[in-house]
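User: Design a sequence. Structure:
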């Protein structure tokens, strides 16, 4: 049986959409939103009608009928902790993301838009591998400070998709294997996958710095900087996320530009780039202890994984731990569609969302 699935992935200034027929991608488009238009809205949820209209227009312009869809799936937003896999969008999830969001984030629109479109044609809508997937073991939640409990926030969607894909290529099941996955993008996160569950992670504020994020920094010095009277809270948050990492050091978030600097003999750029590799490798080593060294593969994915320079430097440091698989790119739309396809084919069961 053939299933058609519309996948929707809202980002801060764009909305990516794709239509799949079973595993085959029929259509994809990135809808760019003018920054001034986005800034008109006080809350992310207020962008709902504008983004929905743009999606429907893009489909119409490409002669794609919504009525042909079997299901619609949106990027899972920042919910209270949820399981991995699919969730059918329900009224409680809509209320949480629309009226009681934990955090203002564009991904919150995924469920809102997919549900609204699906209702008009009487089909189900889903999210898959939300940003809030939390399968940490209790031992991994302890931070060392009772006021702060570790939680699971990482690039769950692409990380799990690449691990599932790797297992399929080896004619095995994801639930039979152990992986460490490093997602390298504007932010960097790492995750330990044990027999189908992400049992520990290193989030983008706990580990390696990245093109735009500072990552793990010395706590005492951070506290001193916060109270030095130089910066307000908003500026400090931006230093950690948005204006940190390579951007702070080299005034660019483009790793290709950094590699050009290195090729032109910039020793400082080389040191910083190697330091980012060094910290990624340390994170992989850290998570290898979580799995007691029983690791089928280390998977390197995300946009920076297209760089052979960066990935080769990582391999030099970690391939003694386990085989290294380079699976470049960010495959969120494919992951959303294929996850939903497994639900439609009864290979997976969708979870029911409760607060």
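Assistant: Done.
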């Amino acid at each position: 049986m053939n299933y058609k699935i519309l996948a929707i992935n809202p980002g801060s200034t764009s909305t990516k959409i794709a239509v799949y027929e079973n595993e085959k991608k029929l259509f994809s488009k990135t809808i760019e939103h003018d920054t001034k238009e986005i800034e008109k809205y006080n809350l992310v949820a207020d962008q709902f009608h504008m983004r929905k209209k743009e999606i429907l227009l893009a489909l119409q312009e490409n002669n794609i009928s919504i009525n042909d869809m079997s299901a619609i799936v949106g990027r899972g937003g920042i919910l209270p902790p949820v399981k991995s896999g699919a969730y059918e969008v329900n009224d409680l999830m809509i209320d949480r993301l629309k009226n009681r969001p934990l955090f203002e984030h564009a991904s919150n629109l995924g469920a809102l838009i997919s549900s609204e479109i699906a209702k008009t044609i009487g089909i189900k809508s889903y999210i898959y591998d939300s940003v809030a997937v939390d399968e940490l073991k209790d031992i991994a939640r302890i931070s060392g400070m009772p006021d702060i409990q570790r939680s699971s926030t990482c690039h769950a969607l692409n990380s799990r998709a690449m691990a599932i894909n790797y297992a399929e290529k080896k004619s095995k099941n994801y639930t039979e294997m152990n992986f460490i996955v490093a997602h390298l993008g504007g932010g960097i996160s790492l995750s330990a996958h044990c027999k189908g569950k992400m049992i520990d992670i290193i989030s983008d504020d706990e580990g390696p710095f990245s093109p735009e994020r500072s990552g793990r920094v010395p706590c005492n010095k951070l506290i001193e900087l916060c109270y030095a009277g130089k910066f307000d809270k908003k500026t400090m948050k931006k230093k950690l996320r948005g204006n940190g990492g390579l951007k702070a050091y080299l005034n660019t978030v483009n790793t290709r530009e950094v590699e050009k600097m290195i090729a032109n003999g910039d020793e400082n750029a080389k040191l910083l780039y190697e330091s980012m590799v060094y910290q990624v490798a340390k994170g992989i080593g850290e998570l290898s202890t979580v799995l007691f060294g029983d690791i089928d593969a280390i998977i390197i994915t995300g946009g920076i994984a297209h760089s052979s320079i960066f990935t080769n430097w990582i391999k030099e440091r970690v391939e003694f731990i386990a085989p290294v698989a380079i699976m470049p790119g960010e495959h969120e739309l494919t992951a959303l569609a294929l996850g939903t396809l497994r639900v439609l084919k009864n290979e997976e069961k969708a979870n029911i969302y409760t607060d």
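The chain has two domains: 4-132+333-352, 138-322. DSSP finds 13 helices and 14 strands in the chain.
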